[in-house]
Amino acid sequence: MSRNAMVSRVENERVLVLERVFDAPRDLVFKMFKEPEHLKRWWGPKGWELPVCNVDFRPGGVWHYCMKCVDKNQGDFYGMESWGKGVYKEIVESEKIIYTDYFSDAEGNTNDTMPSTEVMMEFIDMGGKTKLVSRSEYVSAEALKTVMDMGMLEGITQTWDRLEESLNEIK
Predict the structure, then answer these.
(1) How far apart are CA 117 and CA 138, in angstroms?
(2) Helix (H) or strand (E) holding 135
(3) Alpha-carbon span 49 to 163, nearest angstrom
(4) Do the Cβ atoms of 73 and 47 come closer than 8 Å?
(5) For a tag on the chain, would you pick the N or C end, based on fewer CB atoms within 10 A?
(6) What three-state secondary structure class fits 163?
(7) How many whole angstroms separate alpha carbon 139 and alpha carbon 47?
(8) What tens digit of pLDDT does each residue of 129-138 get?
(9) Residues with Cβ < 8 Å from 17, sequence gap 6 or more?
(10) pLDDT digit string (tens) for 76-122?
(11) Distance linking the first and last C-alpha atoms of the chain
């Protein structure tokens, strides 16, 4: 368990709030979310890579990516691909990113059988450190339960662990 453990809570039955403090300046933490070369280093759970990562970082722009399991120890998941798409709604440089997150296919078509999510990420300057607050709003409590049952919280925890490792390598 790292010193900067992630704190999670559910609000209004359908909003998942995640918070974690990273020992890195706010501008750098923000940059990790906007540049494909950085995202490729840390996005996704342990044992997964990002062979495709196309980012058009502007309101109305699309982030289309593919996560692929490259860890043979993950059994049935090995070789599996998971495509996702984010559509940016609002960006305030170094402070905030708001986007809608979708499951998608390789062409970027959204998978409407899976719940989409409204995500707001806030980057709070703590004098050389950064508090990252992510609020993911689902259409219903059932939609949130669906992704929680898929192991999403564990996946995000591993993803943010990888973000912390990448930040430590860069600073």
Answers:
(1) 5
(2) strand 130-138
(3) 13
(4) yes
(5) N
(6) helix
(7) 30
(8) 999 999 999 9
(9) 8, 9, 10, 11, 133, 134, 135, 136
(10) 999 999 999 999 999 999 999 999 999 999 999 999 888 889 999 99
(11) 21
